[in-house]
Amino acid sequence: MQMTPVYWLIFGIGLLILEVMTPALISLFFGLSALTVALIAWLFPVSQVVQWLLFAVFSVGYILLLRKAIKQVFKGDKEVSDRVSDEFAGRRAVVVEPVAPNKPGRVELNGCTWMAEAEAALSKGQSVRVLKKDNLTLKVEAV
Question: In this structure, what is the dihedral angle of CA atoms 128, 131, 134, 137, given to the nearest 10 degrees?
């Protein structure tokens, strides 16, 4: 089958649609390469072998030149955390078992008790602020 510019166009659009369904930032570059080859084959009638070579060269070139830049665009400036700790930071809790440096205690937060660590001694009943959550232990400080 002879690859005409129309086939390259369909192939490229199909790869771009595949990228939307599986965002791995790989099909995008092959799709761009196919669209580039479609344009070249439309402007300059070249053999099928040359078209496939161009496709390979543009695919590798786009991956090497654009992947890092495009990944930064999709990543954005804000770092997204998959940890639950973000929802605990800044919350208020009450000490239910004394906490001391190198001696964890317990705090109550939203009706649940948590292991707690602090850099200063905290007594029972004292109000504290959660700095972060590390696994099942809250890092806290006095308010």
Answer: 0
Domains: count for the chain: 2
What pLDDT score was predicted for residue 110?
87
pTM of structure: 0.51
Task: Check whether residue 90 and residue 128 sit in a common domain.
Answer: yes
Which token pair is 27?
């099909």
Q: Which residues pair with 108 in a beta bridge?
A: 94, 113
Quickly list H helices, the chain: 5-21, 27-43, 48-75
What residues make up the domain containing 23? Answer: 5-75
User: Same structural domain for residues 60 and 113?
Assistant: no
Instruction: Give the SS3 label for residue 123.
Output: coil
Mean pLDDT score, 88-105:
93
Among 75, 102, 131, identify where a domain stops.
Answer: 75
